[in-house]
Amino acid sequence: MKNYDSVRHVKGESLFIDDLSIPSSALFGAVYASPIAHGKILSISLEEAKASEGVVAVFTQSDIPGVNQIGGIIHDEKLLASEYVHFIGEPIAFITAKTQSQARLAAKKVKVEFEKLEVITDPKDAFRKGSLIVNDPKIYINGNVDEVWDKCDLIVEDTVELGGQEHLYLETQSSISYPTEGGGLKIISSTQNPTAIQRTAASVLNISANQIESEVSRLGGGFGGKEDQATAWACLTALAAYKLKKPVKLILSRQDDMRMTGKRHPYTSDYKIGFSGEGKILAYEVTYYQNAGAAADLSLPILDRTLAHCTNSYFIPNVKATGWCCKTNLPPNTAFRGFGGPQGMFVIESAIHKASKLLGIEPHLIQALNLFKEGDEFPYGQKIENGKSQECWQRIFEKYDIDAVKRDLETFNSNNKLFKKGYALMPICFGISFTHTMLNQASALVHVYSDGSVGISTGAIEMGQGVNMKIRQIAANIFNVNLSRIKSETTNTTRNANTSATAASSGADLNGNAASIACNAILKRLINFFAEKNNIEDINSVEIRNEKLFVNGADFNYSWNDLVLNAYHNRINLSEHSFYATPDIYFDTKTNKGKPFAYHVYGTSLFISKVDCLRGTYEIESVKIIHDIGQSINKVIDRSQAEGALVQGIGWVTLEEIIYNSDGRLLTDNLSTYKVPDINFTPKDIEIEFLENSYNKPGPMNSKAIGEPPFMYGIGAYFAIRNAVESFNGRKEMKYEAPLTPERVLMNLYNNK
Ligand code: MTE
Ligand code: HPA
Ligand code: MOS
């Protein structure tokens, strides 16, 4: 099939930034970054770097013609450090040379003297020292927790520690900037947010946005890591290209990328939860200490999503959730699939798990008892509408005999001394829309060419999630023509202006709905034209089926090609620019109440783990999922998104461990020390059933978003493994901390406390 990214990928035909042919005048960039995590810059010496072979120019903050600032939400992040540095990997100088190796070699010759300052890496430590991104916490409240503690039969308090996660997109951060005539620039970069690059580069260079064309063909993965953090690298090439009037290209090496860019936010969270004797949750108070790193980046909206998802799929009448955005000397942490939701959801699952032992009620019974029902209210005031928590939960029990699973595991565990199995159920509920209402907008530009082919430009970025395919399917479905006629164009700010990042799982929703509006407008003009030409009064009697026109159900012997060509000859407009803004959503940031999400995605999963109690190694034997996708636009894409997200989620809570030392140095900065799930670790048995008869009005073709929600099923792996460990060690005191690496498992198996 033509124009199908996956086919081009396997043929090696897809072009990523490093594959683009560049003119011989192009220069290559390398970054000199801070080697210390916090300090004052005393002196910078560039002589040796400048004299290095092949070097053309070296840029520092004083070369910036506009504002030295790339912070999107809070202006607290410089493009190139000036007086102070705040993390290891913070760019200080940008070197351009004739070849990439010359540039990288020269970067090593920059000399900077620092006065070292105190380094903070832990969020609670930062909180205690008053090191915060914003001084006030974010607080979401429902009911009044303080009025009900007395009425609880059980109160549990504990702390949960969650680690970060490296994005490990296959394509590292990359960009090329080309000077254009009249002092402008074309910036091609690997970003989820070309408009942010256009806006920020314009401000850094002190030129207007219309002087900058920002373009993306596709990404070799983003996972949130290129929502905000592609900007610095694009702006550096823009600065050099603007100054030198030559194309400049920058590709970060894998190790530089791992060292210099932010990751998923680690969190430390303290909670207090109150239950009735039967296991009803009566009150939940939680305080999240988010490790934001050295600058705000997207930490505040990420914290919003943590708070919004703090009760996962459960209705809790009294909730007080507080979030502190703590400033540390790590690279600014950033968006990562789930956007703070996973961190919020992990804590409530830990609370239920801990309480289950004290109540003597199994976790899944507590989960079931508290699951959302229609009309229940989220802590942010939105009510459950068309909720599917109950349906997904019931369906998994209907499909799999959980009591039999339990019996099998008990038998296995009593027959095996050194292998233990565990199971866990993990429901999810994830809100779809950017939490910042303003961002929920998109545009599309659709051209039908006189040969009947169609080109669609939207703000959506293809990063492997299949958004281009979905948008093409939406268009093919509206025009009722063959998919091969429809092409997704590159994403480009001169065709679609003021785009939002492709993020929040809403790329296909927002851009698909915009494309749908444009296609329908063109279709309407075509049908009106046809009806008028042929004296047909009722335009509803005209339809296109498989590229042919039918009137009152009868074949009119008139093709899509005839229609388009004739319309063109009759001066009918065959292009449309459309706009979509998600209706009926709002959020009051003073009260933290409103209806921030267009809808929610629901599901339930069942995990079975097997732990080798001699070695501490483990496997997830099977994962069964009932997932609510509404009406899937493309089941292959949706299934693979669900599988990919699931495995990435499992990786977060199991193998993937990011370690910084107390100097703020990343110790896990390559793939020999940072482990991600591979095909052998992936559960052998993953079964995903899409919930039937679910329809979603706000989604194109009644679909629901898929990108992020299944990530959070992965949390179930933690509890399944933990349960197996506990059946070996007799439920000795075990901290709630992730990732639960084989090393941690081993320590807990033989923890004699
Ligand atoms: N799938 C692939 N293959 N590569 C990616 O980078 N990013 C994820 C998800 N699925 C990603 C992916 C993230 S974080 C988001 S928000 C969504 O895709 C974004 O795309 P969508 O809004 O079109 O679903
Ligand atoms: N999700 C993902 N990315 C975002 C969001 C969100 O809710 N808000 C701003 N960027
Ligand atoms: Mo996804 S974390 O919203 O890019």
Kindly describe this structure.
The chain folds into three domains: 4-118 and 167-260, Aldehyde Oxidoreductase, domain 3 (Alpha-Beta Complex); 267-435 and 590-750, Aldehyde Oxidoreductase, domain 4; 441-581, Aldehyde Oxidoreductase, domain 4, CATH 3.30.365.10. The protein contains 18 helices and 30 strands. It has an eight-stranded mixed beta sheet. Strands 7-15-14-13-8-30 form a six-stranded mixed beta sheet. The protein has a four-stranded mixed beta sheet with strand order 16-27-28-29, sandwiched between helices. Strand 17 and strand 18 (454-458) form a beta hairpin. Helix 5 (194-205) crosses helix 6, helix 8 runs parallel beside helix 9 (341-359) and helix 16 (635-653) packs across helix 17. Residues 221-224, 337, 463-465, 467, 502-508, 641, 644, 705, 707-708 line the site of ligand MTE.
Q: What is the CATH topology of the largest domain?
A: Aldehyde Oxidoreductase, domain 4
**The CATH top-level class label of the largest domain:** Alpha Beta
Mean pLDDT: 97
* Major sheet description: 8 strands, mixed
How far apart the termini lie comes to 61 Å
CA-based gyration radius: 27 Å
As a percent range, the share of helical residues equals 25-40%
CATH-wise, what's the superfamily of the largest domain?
Aldehyde oxidase/xanthine dehydrogenase, molybdopterin binding domain
- Identify the overall geometry: globular
The portion of residues forming beta strands comes to: 25-35%
Number of domains: 3
CATH architecture of the largest domain: 2-Layer Sandwich
Largest sheet, order of strands side by side? 3-5-1-12-9-10-11-20
Ligand names:
ligand MTE, hypoxanthine, dioxothiomolybdenum(VI) ion
Poorly predicted segments: none
Summed up, the helix count is 18
Oligomer: single chain
- List how many beta strands DSSP finds: 30
Report the structural category: alpha+beta
